[in-house]
Design goal:
By secondary structure, the protein is α+β, with helices and mostly antiparallel strands. The protein has one domain: Glutaredoxin. The chain contains 3 helices and 4 strands. The longest helix has 12 residues. The two termini are about 15 Å apart.
């Protein structure tokens, strides 16, 4: 599976939902806390044009927010588990 990055902040409840969803599906991901990582925050703005989190990224595909349907499309392997 290709690398998956999840841009988050510690106080974001929807970020927790995305992480719980991916963990429940057994998907490994890297978390980028944009509150603590200035370069991560800049990358987030470059990717989306905004500072909203959560943002889940796989290659050039981006899902903004907690959207299980879009996450499943982003990561087709999820639909087989």
């Amino acid at each position: 599976m290709e690398e998956i990055n999840v841009y988050t902040t510690p106080t974001c409840p929807w970020c927790g939902k995305v992480k719980e969803y991916l963990q429940a599906k057994g998907v490994q991901y890297s978390e980028i806390d944009v509150a603590a990582d200035a370069s991560g925050a800049r990358r987030l703005v470059e990717l989306t044009g905004q500072r909203s989190v959560p943002v889940t990224v796989k290659k050039d595909q981006v899902v903004v927010g907690y959207d299980p349907e879009q996450l499943a499309k982003l990561i087709p392997e999820l639909t087989t588990k």
